Request: fold
Amino acid sequence: MELADELGILVVSEAFDCWKRGKTTYDYARFFPEWYKKDVASWVRRDRNHPSLLFWSVGNEIYDTHMGEEGLETMKALLAEVALHDPRKNGLTTLGSNYMAWENTQKCAPWCSGRWISVPGDALVSPSGAGASWKTTLSIFGSREATARVAGWWSFRAARIGRKPRQVVKPSATLC
Reply:
């Protein structure tokens, strides 16, 4: 996070790749019920004062979100823990998912303060091959207005906590 602060890179800080329903035999799902509160506290308290922080991602491609109602309840519990340890809301809450078409995952998304949608890797490269495309930016932030608001918010965050990255992102004609 320190390097991202210094270079002006925005970060999606992510905690989990599974919750109660594991992806493999020996993954974190074995420990989730007992450890998620302690792990969220440690994670959020570690990263909450970094100006590079943009999103708290409570999960990425989480099987629980699209397989039943229990996923929504688990997500609400995780979001409550993030709010408890980041009362100033230094990061937007989000969930990365390739399962947004599924009904239960769609029920989870509105509970997040930010939106992040996982897209195929090649969609992250512009036609020229140089970085993220505008289409990807829209899929991440939802609209040009939201993108400008996030960029302005991040500039404010960097100044508010007294850190000055080398390059602060500002809304501009090229961004918006």
Observations:
- Residues 117-140, 153-158, 163-176 have pLDDT under 50 and may be disordered.
- The first strand starts at residue 11 and ends at 14.
- Strands lie at 11-14, 53-60, 92-96.
